[in-house]
Amino acid sequence: MKIYFAGSIRGGRDDKLVYAEMIQYLSNFGEVLTEHIGDQTLSAIGEDGPNDKYIYDRDIAWLHDADVVVGEVSTPSLGVGYEIAKAEEWGKKILCIFRKSPERRLSAMIGGSDKIINRSYTTFDEVKLILDDFFKSV
Ligand code: 6IA
Questions:
Q1: CB neighbours (10 Å) of residue 68?
Q2: How far apart, in whole angstroms, are the C-alpha atoms of residue 49 and residue 100?
Q3: I want to staple 77 with a disulfide (CB 3.0 to 4.6 A). Which of 11, 49, 66, 116 is the partner?
Q4: Tens digits of per-residue pLDDT, 85-137?
Q5: Would the pTM count as exceeding 0.85?
Q6: Is 61 in the pocket of ligand 1 (CB under 6 A)?
Q7: What is the pLDDT of residues 15-41, one digit of tens each?
Q8: Atom 28 of ligand 1: nearest residue by CA position
Q9: Span 55-60, mean pLDDT?
Q10: β-strand partners of 99
């Protein structure tokens, strides 16, 4: 099982810890193609590393190759939204996980799609149950 995990990078790194925890838990179910998203040293404006075209081409190829896409969508990210739209187009099985918050509501373009399984959580124990459930169905 190839898993494409999507999480915000330039959209903001506030949730990087939860990305790392999710990636670690996801590895129980298959190969996570995008482990770098949980890299705690990666900042929203980090300039080191590969250029944008390289990142785009590599990530799109991984996305195309993936069996399932799991997005942590609490921090809004253009890249994550773009990846989810592509994954929809390609008929991938998609799970989006959103942390409940009094300040923020999930974009209607994610929450309103019937091609996405949308779940919300408060604690990481809930995230684990959501992932367990999702992988039982794929
Ligand atoms: O718009 P955003 O940057 O928040 O988009 C985040 C999404 O796009 C993630 O789900 C990634 O799959 C993808 N993405 C965006 N930037 C990168 C990136 N930057 N590396 C890998 N995937 C990316 C450079 C990091 C590198 C220096 C290690």
A1: 20
A2: 33
A3: 11
A4: 999 999 999 999 999 999 999 999 999 999 999 999 999 999 999 999 999 99
A5: yes
A6: no
A7: 999 999 999 999 999 999 999 999 999
A8: 49
A9: 96
A10: 121
**Look-up of token digits 């080191």:** 48
Report the length, in residues, of the chain: 138
pLDDT given at position 47:
62
List Cα–Cα distances, 18 to 2, 24, 85, 119, in angstroms: 20, 10, 23, 15
Using CA positions, which residue lies closest to atom 20 of ligand 1? 55
The answer to whether the beta carbons of residues 86 and 63 sit under 8 Å apart is: yes
79 lines ligand 1 (CB under 6 A): yes
User: How far from 96 is each of 17, 22, 28, 55, 93, CA to CA, in Å?
Assistant: 17, 12, 18, 22, 10
Query: Three-state DSSP class for 98?
Result: strand
Encoded amino acid at 107, one letter: S
What's the token pair of residue 116? Answer: 């996405």
